[in-house]
Every structure is written in structure tokens, then in C-alpha cells.
Amino acid sequence: IQHEAWAPFAEGQNDIFNHPTLKAIAEQHDKGVGAVILRWLNQRNIVVIPKSVHKERMIENFNILDFTLSKEEIDAIALLETGKSPIYDDMDLLTVKGIGLHKIHE
What separation in angstroms does the CA of 33 have from each of 6, 42, 44, 73, 101? Predict the structure, then answer.
């Protein structure tokens, strides 16, 4: 089983691109927060398929293999986990039912 990150940027929720921990790590590596997030997932062997319509961000998303996060940085990012989806409440029965009944195509 290969893990894959679903919405690796949390759809920009909770002002993730301005989070102080992520910004500090990004500055240490002269990278953007998005690159740090993708590298964190990549170093943990989680497949990422980021979405962007901006050429600059697409380039940044591809250029995550030219730096390595330290164990301390990986651990600091892991501490940001809240145990809850920033996109939807997966404990809300109506939300989960709606997702389960959503048709992607005919």
C-alpha cells in the first residue's frame, strides 16, 4: 500500500502558507512553504500530486529534491498535526454521507 497525500496544502486552510514554523523552515532552506510541505511528505515516502495553475509554483513544486529536512525539522512539522481535517469535518455524519453519495461522473 502506497500512501498518497490528499490535498497536501490543505487547500490553503488555516493560513498554512503563513504558519510560523513552516515559514522559519522555508527561510532556512531558501524555499517556499509549499516546497517544505512537499519535501516533508516526500521524505516520509508519501506520494504527492500538488495542484497549481501558476507556472512559478509548478516549478517550485518540482524542485524539492535539492534540499533535505533535518530530523528536527521533520519532527517540528509533525507537531502541527491536529488530528482533524482542515478541509471538512470527517466526524460529521451529513458531511461524510454527502461525500459518499457525491457522483464524480455518470
Answer: 17, 14, 17, 13, 34
**Which residue has 519532527 as its cell numbers?**
75
- At CB < 8 A and 24+ separation, what contacts does 95-102 make? none
C-alpha cell at 22: 513552516
| Surface-to-core class of residue 98, CB atoms within 10 Å of its CB (0-12 exposed, 13-18 middle, 19+ buried) | exposed
For residue 18, the SS3 value is helix
What global pTM score does this model have?
A: 0.76
pLDDT tens figures, 24-78: 999 999 999 999 999 999 999 999 988 888 899 889 888 899 999 999 999 999 9
Which three-class secondary structure state does DSSP give residue 5? strand
Residue whose entry in the numeric block shows the C-alpha cell 516533508: 40
